[in-house]
Design a protein that fits this description.
Layout lengths: L8 E15 L3 E12 L5 E11 L4 E11 L3 E12 L12 E9 L2 E10 L4 E4 L3 E4 L2 E2 L4 E4 L12 H13 L4 E4 L6 H10 L4
Parallel strand pairs: 11-12
Antiparallel strand pairs: 1-2, 2-5, 3-4, 3-6, 6-7, 8-9, 9-10
Helix pairs in contact: 1-2
Amino acid sequence: VSLLIGDRLSIDPQGVYFGTAEADDEMAVINTRTVLNHRGIGVRKVRLYTEIKDMDGHTVASDSIPVTVMEHDSIELTQKLYVRRPKLWSAEQPSLYQYHMEIRENEEIIDTGEGTFGIRTVQVDPIRGLRVNGNMVKLRGGCIHHDNGIIGSAEFLHAEQVRIRELKKAGYNAIRSAHYPMSRQLLEVCDQIGMYV
């Protein structure tokens, strides 16, 4: 069980989305959606700061927008960021970026959100099939269950890393889940190691 403690105005833990609108070797356009929840009274005027960094910690894009949130309300915000010369994610080259978000009220940070994502384009058509970043991809995969054999259903980062590395060594580039949705931790391991889901 995880208990989240914070301000009455916060970033929804499941309300952050980073998506690639378009990308090539020169530029990537990243669309973001962020849900803010205000469970308190009174109108609050804040600012949402969003920053994208490469895995070396260098800032590659940033944006900030002013936000007015009404009491007992949820609001969805969108931003568009531009990344120059992006490293595109694929199963063969799983390049990731980090994002960091802050809600500031009078320069005081009242909530933050962070995570990783990959920049990639995906197209599917009946002639060329699946293409990732413009390259045709043949999926070689299988179905996995939510448990880790004798370990059971408990989630352990190392166990997920071992499982995905072993599947990749066996020639897999894709997996799907059976019966239960994949955990956030397993999805993050697939992003890091390079596995289509």
